[in-house]
Structure formats: structure tokens, C-alpha cells
Amino acid sequence: MGKKDTQKDLAFDMFQDQEKMMIPIIPKGRKKLSGAQTTFNRLNKKIAKLKMIIDELPQREHVIKKYFDENSFRLFEQEAQLTEELLCNLDRVYKTARLTKKEKSYLPELILDECEHLDDLPFASQFIKEHLNERDYFFAAATYPSIQIFTGRGCPFRCNFCVYPQTMHGHAFRARSAENVVAEFEYIAANFPDVKEVVIEDDTFTANKKRVLDICRLLVEKKLNKRLKWLCNARVDLDLETMLAMKKAGCRLIIPGIESGSQQILDNIKKGTKVEYFYQYVANAKKAGLLIHACYMVGNQGETRETMEETLRLALRLNTDTAQFFPLIPYPGTEAYQWARENNYIETDYEKYCLPDGTHNTVLSLPDLSAGEMVDFCNRARKKYYLRASYILHRLRVGLRNPSDLKRSLKAFAKLKRYLFK
Hints:
Largest sheet: 7 strands, parallel
Order of helices and strands: HHHHHHHHEEHEHEHEHEEHHEHEHHHH
Strand content: 5-15%
Shape: globular
Helix content: 40-55%
């Protein structure tokens, strides 16, 4: 069987699976949505994969007509071409699908993962134990070797560039219980004697303060804070009380998406933060003894050479432990992609999203700011940030106090040096 045949069979199975999945999702006693609405809801999770191969399906018309009436068939024809725009936000979905007010209340429930009770899922670390070698993977911000886990899905915030909430997990925050999360820490401690750190890869681990504090309390009670360090993504509204509890529970590093030094750009990308927040966040993290890996990006709506320089000046003033600078990569299914595509700012050949060596490519160019200029700025920003004498002395002091961190820094430097010295 050839590759295309395999893809066709896979696509046909996806249609059948989605038909079955809709049955338990709609609560008992509720009226099932009309065919036109279920067309979108049934396909929304896997449409991105289907879209690439749907035109090659010899049984395409048979499949659609089997599951949908003639009216919904015509709507499917439209949606198959407009999927990227439809996925950008629920407002467009509501408008295109012509949902009634009552039906709108069903849609957020229908587009969530079929599994909303995340405690029912097996630990990711169990899969790693059975099928992978944790030493084959390296994350520059984490102490090596580390293991990455998710403790929740969905993000209530609306950053226009963020991939998972807009294309996979949705904006409704669902989380594993504190007990379940700590049980996975126990599993990792018992089954991975070489692992030094857990990377919590949730979009926003700190979205629910009470849950974070409960996790921290349990980690301390079970003395797991003495065995494992951990890090997480944390928005800049995180308060000092929570930071102190996280530090006590073994948290070593927090990762905020600061993104830009321009308030106008933060507003344009719906970040929901203010530049002044960043200073208090960094000050509180230092009081708590937490390190910060700050994320900055360029190329968003409103970006200019001057706003890029604002971002670099902010990064130098905040002076976090580590920082990253990258051009925006607008992924299909996000509002940022829709903006870039509607304005012809983006390369739509997806094969060009990665370079031959597997690293990301810059596929975005703005009218007054080329892709090359954004890449050059990021390279210059890294050099200016990491090659400061004060920064190098800081890293040496941290390394002398903590030999494992020195080892991590040297390993990270080995990965970063080609960007610093080219």
C-alpha cells in the first residue's frame, strides 16, 4: 500500500471516528445540533490534517453525503476552504455556521477535547519510560536530563499568535487535580533516578492560583521538593505569595512571554499585559529566588525598527537570567496567521517553515521590515544580551554556587554559540 493510499484510509477513518465521537459529547436530553452545525463541529479537531489530503479522496463525496444532508454538504464545501479562518476565533465560527443563541452555548463544549477529565489520562512519563530515553532530549532552560509533562489544557487568555489554544486545546482551562499532578512527580522520582527536573509545559500553569498552591503544598508534604526541581510557563500577573510557595516546592525557573517592549504591540496581539507589569514581576521573582527565562519576539502587527529596539532595551533593563529573541512564526489556525495572510505578509508554502537542519525558518515579511532584518535583529539582540561582561560574570557566579546549573549553562551555550558568533 502506497503512502497516498494510507493517507486516504486514515482520512476515511477520521470521518468515521468523528461521527462516533459526537454521540457521547452532547449531554443526554439536549437537542442535537442541525447538520450544518455538526458539520463544522465534527471536523474541527482534525480538519487541519484532513485538509491536506481531502481533495485526493476518491470516496470524498460518498463520505460527506453519507453523514450529512444536502444543505450541510454545501456548507462543508465552503468550510473546507475557509477552515483556517474559521478556526481563528469563535466569533467567526458563530457567524459562518449561523448558530442560534442557544446553539452558541453548545459550541464551546463541543469543540473541547473529548476527554475533559484529565485525571483519567495515563501519565506522559509512563509513555516515556516504556518507549523513549529521556537522555535523548535536551531543553536549554532545564537541568539535564529532564522530563516534560502537561498538567492542564486550554488557556483563558487570547494572545493572537498562540497555537495550542486556537488550534488544539481551546480557551477553556481544564486541569489535572493537584493530587494527580503530584502523583506523576512521585512516579518520575521513583522511575527516573537520573532525571533532575520536571518541565511543566502547560500554556499557563499559573492560571488557577489555588491549584498551584495545592500542588506546591503536596510537593512539600511528600518531600518531592528535595528530589526534583521544576519549571513552568507563568504569566506576568503571578504574585509574590505564589512565587514564594513555588520556590519552596522546588520550582527553579519561570518562563513568561514578555514578547515586546511596545505597549501598542502588546495591545495589537491581545496579550492583556502592560509593560509596567514586567518590572514588578521580575522584582518579585528575585525576592522569591526564582530564575526567569524571558521570551521576546518581533514581527507582530505594528512592528518597526524602533519597536524592536524598544524590546531590546526592555530586555537589557529587566536583565533576566536568560532570554530568547525570535521572529514571529504565524501558524495556520491562529489570528496572527489570518492577519499575515490577509495582508500578504507570509509565505504559504508550509515546506518553507523549517530549514534543512530542522530549525524554524522566518516566513514573515512586513512592508517596512523584511524577514532578513528580523533575523538579523534577533541575532544581534542575543549577542548584545549574552556577551555582556556583567552577564558572563553573573552566569559564572551562579554556576559556582550550583554546579548542575553550570553544566546546564555549558550545554545550552554549545547549542547557542552558532547564533552568537556567526
